[in-house]
Structure formats: C-alpha cells, structure tokens
Amino acid sequence: MDHNNILAVVLAGGKSKRFGRDKSQVKLGGKILINHILTEIIDLYKDILIVTNEPIKFFNSNKISLTNDIKKDQGPLGGIFTAMKWVKENKKDYKWISTFPIDTPFFKKEHLSKFYKEVNLNESNLFFMKSKNMQHNIFGLWSMELFEKLKIALDKGDRKVELWANEIGVKTIDFEFENNKDPFFNINTEEDLESAKKILNND
56 pairs with which residues across the strands? Predict the structure, then answer.
C-alpha cells in the first residue's frame, strides 16, 4: 500500500469525560499519551493531522498540522469529516485517511503494517481493525470517496461510528494477541492508567 496516498489523522477532540482531564496530556512511561501514538507513526507518512479543540502539547515536527473540529460535539465522525475537509481545502492528493486514537499506548507500527498488508482496497471504502470480536472503530482506513456520505450523515445528526460504518459497509481485519499484550488497550479512567503503568513495568 502506498503511504503517500494516506493522511494520518490523530483524533484528539474528545472531552475525556470519564478521565476528568485531557487524556492526551497525561504522562505514561515518561511521555504524554499522544506522543506514544505519534512516535509510532511519525516516520510512515508525509503528513499527520491532529484534530483537537483545545491547545495541546506534542513533540515538534514539521510533518504535523493541527485543526479544530468543524462539527463540534459529533464525536469521531465529526473529526474524520474535519480531516477530509482539511484535505480538500489544502488541495492535498490523499485518497485515504488512516485514523488513530490518543489513548492506546501499546499500539505499535507493526500492527499497522499487518493491517495495511491485509487490506484489499478493492473490497470497500472503509476498513477497521478488530480483535476478540470487538471492532476498533477509531483504528480505521477511510476512503475520501466517503466525504459526501459522511456530510449527509452528520447533517442528519448521526454520531455512532459503528452504526454508520455497518450501514455503508465496512471490512474488518482481525488481530490476535496475548491478553497482557493488547495493542488496543485504551485508557479511559485513572484506573486504566494505573493498569497501563503496571503493564509497562512488567515488560
């Protein structure tokens, strides 16, 4: 798969309600959470776009751009639409958008490589990662051809990624892993953060 056709998008516009503060700025293993995912993907793409609604810190790179949600309070779908609109407004050539969350510190570039290797772009305009019968909707590969459909859905008030994705047709790529090496372990609460620290210390 040609990475030059893909814009990497880190979705950092969530309100972190369950955590109580901005998760992207929480430290784990000596670096803030958003830098865990940026470290894994920074060398793979020409551009990385962070969609966020608050000022945030992250490591400096001329590859990284910031933009605010166009459609606020519409969850990840709004963030993805924002990224697609950014592509169009900045006259970029990207045909696909690859999306990442900010709260999965154990996800590695090797998992992304497996995902891309198993994706057949002729099968769908949308692909998600999946493990243990759970669909990971933020780890997605979205065709720019979905732009108009996404706009219509958001105008109607759709917010549920999985419902919308299943409606238009999504293909999933399955992952297997040992329980203590879950690349999709995400940090939603302070308790999750403590668990992540224990996982790191046991490595």
Answer: none
